[in-house]
Specification:
80 residues, mainly alpha, elongated
């Protein structure tokens, strides 16, 4: 497995990493690997997360509901 040395980490960033590692009961090395994995590797979204995000967006939009009849009329508009 490759090894990586990180130099010149700003004190504030290191302090945040150290606290995060303690909170998650991980070593600083393990916490750093976790942070890199979550920010760099693609993650398959769970259906529940997508549904929650869609519902949150829907709450932000207060648009009038459109009926099937109105949708059909809009599709046929200008076709004649």
């Amino acid at each position: 497995m490759p090894a990586l040395t990180i130099k010149n980490i700003p004190d504030e960033l290191y302090d945040h990493l150290k606290v995060s590692a303690q909170v998650h009961h991980r070593s600083i090395n393990s916490e750093l690997i976790y942070c890199l994995e979550t920010s760099l590797l693609p993650r398959k979204a769970q259906p529940q997360e997508l549904l929650a995000a869609a519902r949150a967006l829907r709450q932000q939009v207060r648009a009038k509901r459109i009926s099937v009849k109105e949708i059909d009329a809009a599709k046929n508009e200008g076709r004649q």
